[in-house]
Each structure stands twice: as structure tokens, then as C-alpha cells.
Inverse folding.
């Protein structure tokens, strides 16, 4: 049995996605990520025969890929692989019922795996990355975007302050997001070659905190934490939260700011053709010579 903590209620997460589909999803972030993903793939001078869109909540990434010649066969791996998923993913050649925590693909069967705003809800992210790396053929590529550490930092602060004042304690209202450095180490732990992580911060403005919360519901981004409070949110707490949010994070025109941090991950399944780091001590020139400076032996302090 895994010793990893179970943070997310995956059944509830699927219910949130189904509800968002019925409400008419808010897709502006996914659409932006899909276009950025396309731009990043455009720099790779090759065609991918078999690609999987892993867990992306809508068909935005699939539609972007279908509009190019980068992919021959596109498979949508969706935990809601029913009528709703098929309606959203008409661009996919195949749709398979697959949870991001238990991939149904054989070893070395895929050329490309892409994913947008799905992996931040995975309980065992190291295990998922290992499964993806094993499913990729040698020199296959993973390209993923997920919510990073500063996402919704304003909402978290406002809720924590309001609950402390009104209820005398705080409860987890917004999920914890992974740190950029930690994600880079996870790629290395999963034995990806040439791992790269970078971050994109987006500030979105809303008319009110309630408008932000309604948008999060339509993104299927409401609280799926196992340890979430089961008590209904008190009106007094909600009212105080909105007041604090406006006090701390409103612009001069009264609109409030919400931060979305998008962390990008990319890594390649190892292949002999890939660049490899030089062995320690194999350099032919000293760094001090290249910089035109004096080398200082370890343990000595530079003079002032």
C-alpha cells in the first residue's frame, strides 16, 4: 500500500468536471495554454505518430493539435470518457477511459504526451510521471502545464483571514499547488532526459470575489480536498472574505485581481542521441581562464 497521503477526492473531482460541462465551462485559461503548447511544439522539428492528451478538462489542446501537422494519431485519455467527453473531444481519433493515476498504455508505445490543468489534482504525481516516462518511446516527449504555487494566492489569504476572524480557525479552501523547483526534481526522479520547468504568471481581473468563485466552478476548479470542511460556508464568513479581498486586492476601479501561475514541464524519454552532461573533470579549459580572472582554491576567501 502506498505511503503517500491522499489529498484529493478523485470521485468529487470528476463530479466537478461533469457539473462544469453542464454549466458551460470557462475556458479562457485552457485556450491560452493550448495556444502556448502549440507554440512550444512548433519549435520541435519532428512529427509525433501517436500522441495522448492526458486528462485535459476540455478539448482545447486536442483542437490546437488537430489544426497542425504535428500529430498523426491523437488519443484523448479522459476519466469521463462517456457522451460528454465525446462531445467535447470530437477532434480526437480515439477516446479512452483513463485516470491520470493509472495509465492504460503499454511501455514504449507513445511518441508524445501532453496535459493541461490536470496533473495538479493527482495524488501520486511522482508515480504518474514515472508511468508517462515508461509509456513514451525512446526520445518521446512529455509537455504539460499545471497550476503552480502562487495560483489563487489572493483568495487563499482572504479566506484564511476571514475564517480566523469569524470562526476562530481556518480550513483548507484552496488546494496546495506544487513548487517549480519540486516539479523539476520530480522530472529527474522519473528519469526524464533534458528536463525543463518554467513558469508563466497571469493576473485576471474580476468584478467581485463572487464572480471569481463562479468562474472557478465553471473551470471545475472548486475544492476537491479530502480534508475540506464539510460544513456549509457561513454567510458571515463569506461576507468578510469578500470585504478582505476587496480591501487588499482591488484596483482603483474596484475590480479585484486573481493570480494564476502556470508551471510548464517538459522532458524526454532517454535516448542515445540526446545530449548528455560532461563527466566531472573532463573540461579542457579552466573557467577562470575563460572569465579572465584569478582562480581561488576551495576554502579560501577572496580578498577585499
Amino acid at each position: 500500500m502506498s505511503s503517500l497521503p491522499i489529498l484529493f477526492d478523485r470521485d468529487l473531482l470528476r463530479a466537478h468536471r461533469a457539473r462544469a460541462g453542464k454549466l458551460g465551462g470557462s475556458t479562457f485559461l485552457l485556450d491560452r495554454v493550448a495556444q502556448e503548447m502549440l507554440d512550444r511544439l512548433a519549435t520541435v522539428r519532428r512529427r509525433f505518430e501517436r500522441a495522448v492528451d492526458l486528462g485535459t478538462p476540455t478539448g482545447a489542446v486536442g483542437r490546437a493539435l488537430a489544426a497542425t501537422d504535428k500529430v498523426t494519431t491523437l488519443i484523448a485519455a479522459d476519466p469521463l470518457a462517456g457522451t460528454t467527453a465525446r462531445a467535447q473531444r470530437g477532434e480526437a481519433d480515439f477516446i479512452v477511459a483513463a485516470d491520470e493515476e493509472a495509465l492504460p498504455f503499454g511501455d514504449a508505445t507513445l511518441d508524445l504526451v501532453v496535459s493541461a490543468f490536470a496533473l495538479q489534482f493527482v495524488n501520486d504525481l511522482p508515480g504518474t510521471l514515472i508511468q508517462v516516462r515508461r509509456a513514451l518511446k525512446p526520445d518521446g516527449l512529455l509537455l504539460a502545464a499545471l497550476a503552480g504555487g502562487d495560483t489563487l494566492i489572493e483568495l487563499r489569504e482572504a479566506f484564511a483571514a476571514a475564517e480566523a476572524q469569524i470562526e476562530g480557525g481556518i480550513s483548507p479552501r484552496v488546494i496546495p499547488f506544487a513548487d517549480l523547483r519540486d516539479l523539476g526534481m520530480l522530472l529527474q526522479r522519473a528519469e526524464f532526459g533534458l528536463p525543463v520547468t518554467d513558469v508563466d504568471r497571469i493576473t485576471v481581473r474580476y468584478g467581485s470575489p463572487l464572480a471569481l468563485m463562479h468562474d472557478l466552478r465553471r473551470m471545475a476548479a472548486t475544492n476537491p480536498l479530502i480534508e475540506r470542511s464539510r460544513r456549509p460556508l457561513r454567510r458571515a464568513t463569506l461576507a468578510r472574505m469578500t470585504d478582505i479581498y476587496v480591501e487588499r486586492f482591488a484596483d482603483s476601479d474596484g475590480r479585484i485581481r486573481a493570480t494564476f501561475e502556470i508551471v510548464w514541464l517538459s522532458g524526454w524519454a532517454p535516448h542515445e542521441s540526446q545530449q548528455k552532461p560532461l563527466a566531472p573533470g573532463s573540461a579542457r579549459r579552466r573557467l577562470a581562464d575563460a572569465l579572465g580572472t584569478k582562480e581561488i582554491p576551495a576554502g579560501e576567501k577572496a580578498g577585499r
About this structure: The CA atoms of residues 172 and 228 lie 6 Å apart. The longest strand covers residues 193-206. The radius of gyration is 22 Å.
